[in-house]
Amino acid sequence: MGRVYHFNVGALCVQMIILFSIYFRKMYRGRTNKAFIRFVICVLLDTIFDIMSSIPNYVLPGVTDKVIFREISSYGYFTMRLLTPVFFMNLVGNVSGTWDQFNKKKICKCIVLVPVISGIAIIVSNLFTNNVFYYTADGVYHRGELLKFLYTCGLLLLIVAMIYLLINQKYIEWEKFVSMSLLIPINLLALVIQFFYPKLLIEMFAITISTLLITVTVIRPEAEVDPSIAAKTYHAFRDDIRRYYLSKQKVNVIFVKITNHKAINQLLGNDTYRTIIHDIAVVINPNKTSIQKKEITPYYLDNGLFAVLIGEKAGEIYATEQANRINRELSREFKVAHIMVKFDTRIMMVRIPSDVPLHSSFVNMISSFHKNLPVGKVCFFKNMTEKEKRNITNDIDTVIAKAIEEGRFCMYYQPIYSVKEQRFTCAEALIRMIDEEGNLVLPAVFIPSAEKSGAIHLVGNFAMDEVFGFAKRMDMKALGLEFIEFNISPIQVMNRNLDVEIRNLIKKHDMKKQNIVIEFREIGSDYVMNLVEKKVKEYQSSGVRFALDDYGTGYSNLQKIMRIPFEFIKIDQSLTGEINDPKMQAVVENTIRMVKDIDVKVTVEGIEDMSKARRFEKLGCDYIQGNCFAEPMREEDFIEFMKKNRNGLTIE
User: Fold this and answer.
1) Residue 351 is part of a domain; what is its CATH number?
2) Which of 67, 450, 517, 534 is packed most tightly, with the most Cβ within 10 A?
3) Do 33 and 219 form a contact (C-beta atoms < 8 A)?
């Protein structure tokens, strides 16, 4: 029985269909597509050589019956078979965006080159020894002793390819990873079967089926490129940027936003608008020679937003030149359907990951970066101030994490006046952040964003540790201080381990529980207020004291608050600041009276002048807090202030 080559013929037909599909779907542009073409051609040549080495003698009399024809075919088959895992690795590297990094590492090159060179050396040695394979005079194929070593080299390359794929799994979409990973076990199975049954040629058929699966799931131009605009889609941009961040590759990104795109669409209609978008893409896209040499990739992200990725090889200077060129060309008027159209463009260039270290920060700025940029000017992210960068990225998480790491968070303390004692008996700890330029960032700027993102837990833990540490370092009794208040965000209340963290801090700093008052900010959510009630009741048994902060801003009623055993209620300055209004005065007076009737101490916040302080003193408030006495101050200034005012102060 001769060798069964029918599977190879079927594989060859499928491979030709794949190549025709590549051409008609225009899948021959871009690094990934080119890597796939190289892989398919390698498999195609391997299949052709396998067919040539096994085809019956009667097919081409005078050719196929020659031993030299069989030997050349076998040499070609073994060579291409050895190189197939290498081309597959190249495909994986381009899909994951890690091939350039892989090539830069000498150890990686050695791991691939050693089995490749060894395998080629074994193949070449067969010319002199016939120790790999040989044909008898009648054309019968025989295996040599070294064939198993050649198969071992191929097996090692397959294992290396599998490890490379697994290592880079996080850079590849799940469905793409699955289809690519199937190629290796299928190929290994076919390799083993063919090794033990050499006349059953199924190896190339197996790898062709895997290649077809990759064609369907990995190489999808309809998901990557918008043919009507000649630019890649947002889906492709999202995947490419994610890979750049994960692999830590450097790339320059030019954003181009047409801010009046809606008005142009309404004026000219959808069809003409799509033509304009195509024309803009042509302007943004340099000539093909530049794309090939500089690795420039244009994208249309929808809603008048374009992006251009310029690889590290092109360089930052070249990227700057392209940004300025795009700005010049889009600054002129365009004639469309006998109408002159002027684009309002916002252009920004950012280098990742150096300018924006976090992927989430980059994603945050895509949709709204243009709101803070001037018209008709190229803005460079690296030249912006820290405040401008924060406004563009909407990313307080990075700022917060970096500020904590670099020690740019600090606590300020504002003394609180006791009406009964006529002196300052307590203080509120207030967190502040210093940006990289030395500017003070108030909580109203970063707290809401931190609560939204979850970074509030980092901020809150830092604040609690600092306050507890400060209370331990200073002599509270000598300064006349009875307690220090600090605020906990409603988001922190949802942390199940909050009670454990507070107890650990008390133990760490050897604090007396009565020296600390935890403030909960009033919020209109019944769910959060129910959590606050539960937490307060849990902690109160351990001796911790509590206050309700910002009363009057969360639309809570006294009935709801009465359920929670607060020791203090702090009336917000939104109410106290309007005390001169007769109607508001009545509201404030009634509020103070009702709070005191339920045996809860009243603190009024935001008192800016002594005349208001006197009014609240007469209304029976227990504590007064505001700039009329002192603004929030740093630790050392606060201690000095308390020393000077330890003997008391009369409101006049």
Assistant:
1) 3.30.70.270
2) 450
3) yes
Asked if residue 506 and residue 371 are part of one domain, the reply reads: no
**How many domains does one find in the chain?**
3
Contact assessment for residue 251 and residue 352, using Cβ atoms and an 8 Å cutoff: yes
Beta bridge partners of 256: 306, 347
Query: Residues 538-578: pLDDT tens digits?
Result: 776 667 788 888 887 655 556 666 778 888 999 888 888 88
pLDDT averaged over every residue in the chain = 82
CB 417 within 8 A of CB 423: yes
Rg (CA), the chain: 36
Type of residue at 237? F
**Mean pLDDT: which of 10-19, 172-181, 338-347, 620-629 is highest?**
620-629
User: Do residues 451 and 365 share a domain?
Assistant: no
Q: Please determine, for residue 221, whether its predicted confidence score (pLDDT) is greater than 60.
A: no
pLDDT tens digits for range 269-315: 888 888 888 888 888 877 655 444 557 888 888 888 999 988 887 88
Q: CB–CB of 375/367 below 8 Å?
A: no
Cis peptide before 443 (omega within 30 of 0): no
Residue 406 and residue 404: Cα distance in Å, rounded?
5
DSSP state of 250: -
- Structural domain containing residue 328: 222-394
Within a domain: 400 = no
pTM above 0.70, yes or no: no
Whole-angstrom distance, CA of residue 630 vs CA of residue 627? 5
pLDDT in tens, 409-452: 889 999 999 999 999 999 999 998 887 767 777 787 778 777 77
Q: How many residues does the chain have?
A: 652
Task: Measure the CA–CA gap between 43 and 87, rounded to whole angstroms.
Answer: 9
Residue for token digits 């008709």?
A: 376
Cα–Cα distance list, 232 to 94, 261, 301, 326, 374 (Å)? 16, 19, 8, 18, 27
- Residue 488: helix, strand or coil by DSSP? strand
Helix (H, G, I), strand (E, B) or coil at 11: helix
pLDDT one-digit tens code per residue, 480-537: 899 999 988 877 877 777 777 888 888 888 878 778 898 887 665 666 677 777 777 7
Ramachandran region of residue 606, left (φ > 0), alpha (ψ -120 to 50) or beta?
A: left
Render 491-560 in DSSP notation, one character per residue: HHHT-TTHHHHHHHHHHHTT--GGGEEEEEE--S-HHHHHHHHHHHHHHHTTT-EEEEEEETSS---HHH
Handedness of CA 177, 181, 183, 186 (dihedral sign): negative
- Angle 386-393/396-405 helices, nearest 10 degrees? 140
Q: How many CA atoms lie within 13 A of 393 on its CB side?
A: 24
Same domain, 438 and 515: yes
> How many other C-beta atoms can be found within 10 angstroms of the C-beta atom of residue 136?
9
3-state secondary structure of 569: strand
Q: How far apart are the first and last CA of the chain?
A: 116
Edge-to-edge strand order for the sheet containing 231-232? 225-226, 231-232, 296-302, 305-311, 251-258, 345-352, 378-380
